[in-house]
Design a protein that fits this description.
Chain lengths: ~300, ~525
Amino acid sequence: MIQITNFTKQYGDFTAVDSLNLTIERGDVFGFIGPNGAGKTTTMKFLATLIKPTSGDALINGHRVSEKPEEVKRSIGYMPDTFGVYQGMKVWEYLDFFGAAYRIPASARKSVIDESLKLLDLEKIRDEYVNNLSRGVKQRLCLAKTLIHNPPVLILDEPASGLDPRARIYIKGILTELRKMGKTILISSHILSELADCCNKVGIIERGKLLASGPVDRILKMIRSSRKVRLIVLEKEALARSVLADTPGVKGVAADGLELEFDFDGDDEQLASILTRVVTEGVRVTGFREVEVSLEEAFLRITRGEIQ
Amino acid sequence: MNIVNPIARRELIDILKGDRSSWCLFVYILVLSGAVYGAWPKTIEFLSVADRIAREIFSYFAFFQILLVSLLAPAFSAGSFTREKEEETLELLLASPISSFSIVVGKLQSAMGFLLLVIVSSLPVAAVILPLGGVGLDELVNLYAILTVMALVSATIGLTCSSYFHRTHSALVVSYLFVLPLTGIVLGLSRGFPQRFFADGGGALPFAVVGLLAVAWMANVVSRRTCRESLDPPKPAGDEDLSEQRGLVLTPGEFPDSLFLPEKSAQGIKDHDNPVFQKEVRSELLGSGTLFMRTVIQIGVILSIFFIPSIVSGRTDHFFSFVIVVMCLVSPSLSSGMFSQERERHTLELLLTTTLTSREILRGKLKALMRYSLVFVGFFICTHMVAYAFSLRSTSAAWSSIHHVLTYLILTFSTVAVVTLMAGFFSVLTMSTFRATVATYVALLVLYVGPFILHKLLVIYTRLSESTLLWVTVTSPFGPLILDPGTGLTFGRLCLWHGTVIVSALICIGLYRYLARNLDRLLPQEERGTMG
């Protein structure tokens, strides 16, 4: 449904996105994750035909972005990260304007607007002025606008940013509904946990490069494959440190007094042999356990390049 | 006690560190020096009549200085509160321990700080005139006192408008609509009674007293309004608000307001309608507040009353010159946000990702904005038609000038098109509504006033006759307008009329083609700040 090939975008000397290749299948809800400035918005704007690439191209619903931008616009619903509303318009007028702008016939527009308002639970405020709405309701209105022409592909740039927890849960619920409707969704966020339970695939981008992409389970397993272990000794912490440093699979040994922490790539058997070796060298151990790595910390580590 | 309050200090630094202040100072001195140089006698015999010549030079010097100070002052104060509103920093300011009166005084101090610098910087030019004799030191002191009060009054008018409007360009235009007639009165008095106005303080003293009282009153109004805004922020337009504000704002669907704001249709946008046009005429003006539109119409109509006698006396050109000047002042403010406002409000991406083509968007915007300007101009033209009908009944000579009236109408309409497209052009080029407004004013001055300065210079330096060189004013609608209507339909007049209309059409075509091809300039192609 979406196929990005070698997309590169440069701003002067700065490379915002570097040779990005990505395929999103029909019906996928793809979470595009990365810290601020990673290149998510640039990629999404390119897909929305809003910026020209330095090189590369993309295919959306069978149409090349570079060759048939008008067809691409018809196929996508784009919700930018920052958006405003027109002053002096009521909710239904706002949707009517975008319906007309997407060339929905006037005879069909009323029912389309009613359906969108119902889906986004905006029926009660259809006659409110859009500039009076709260941020959360504006987000829902923008999402209604994005769906007005029933596009098969949705590109949603941080749709839940700045919302309170209740509104976030509501947006997640809508995403689940849209997925059931068979929409292909590309959604971005800089918070992994926000997307982990509503996407079936995720891609992690940092400094314009796609570091990892695939099914959510596989990515989570990958970022959790690196284990953080804490060793607490009674004495000879320097000796323990040198033993750890010489052990294969051990990285990033950090000491805080008698407590040492390190990253370890290996299975439980190898982990047990590390403890045996430390004890054999004559270090008296009072504690040895694996530290639980949160999803956020794992994400930070992968974007820092600590996990390959 | 610190005389300069923290707001004044911060704002003055902002004004002085930008390029704008240096350019203003440069242009100010350049114009004054040019005026004095232009009036300076070319022969050595002038010593015998030095007194008279010195007075004449001084009168030019005073005229240009009063005019420039009046033009500059609102530019440095009309954004005082509107910018805070646009950048959403007003609440932060009002939540600080600084009182609203101190905020007003600080804003005024910063504008006056720069204006005083400008006024004082003209002293070396004044020093060139004094040795000629004929002008006393007391007259110079009186002139500078009048200038200071004029700057203070104009800056306070700008500040007052800034507290009433939400957009800097709206505040700026309304400020000028108040300041320019006031400047006209002061200039008229200073030119009509120079001896009394400058020499014995007969003009300076009452002017200073009245001016300072007006400043104190306006500062009090702004201070109370600023304080009220913090306690009771204005609500966005709603149906109930509109009914409460009847007479102060435009009411959709009610004639003649419906010419600006047609009533909203409950059926929505029809299939053959341009959605952008419908959005603009049915929502945008209403949403951005119609107080501005109402104010400029009221002031414009009041000012037009002074020009009605010119229609009856056969000088329709004076009336149309006034109409074009007012339109050139108001129209850029309506049109300069054509595209930049969509960008500033973050709605541009939503619009550009619809299936509307660039040309459809452009046509919708142009149609709506030209409609505003034409309706605005239409109010004056109706006034003219009524007065003209009376003159047709009373004098048979009026019938012979009917072709003049038709030509003036064509010139006015072509000027509306040029101004609207010019504002749209700068809206795309500068990507900022305020910068586009200022750039449009500068471009209009260059296009419409510049040719007359060039004409004067060419007359002086080439020794060709004025009528021979009149073709240089072909870009300006004032070129055909200033020709004496009593001379009838000469070949030269016809050429200039047609030439101006053709040049206007060419400018419009060029600007339209540029806009149609460059709408994507508005997209953040080269901005790194938008990356996520």
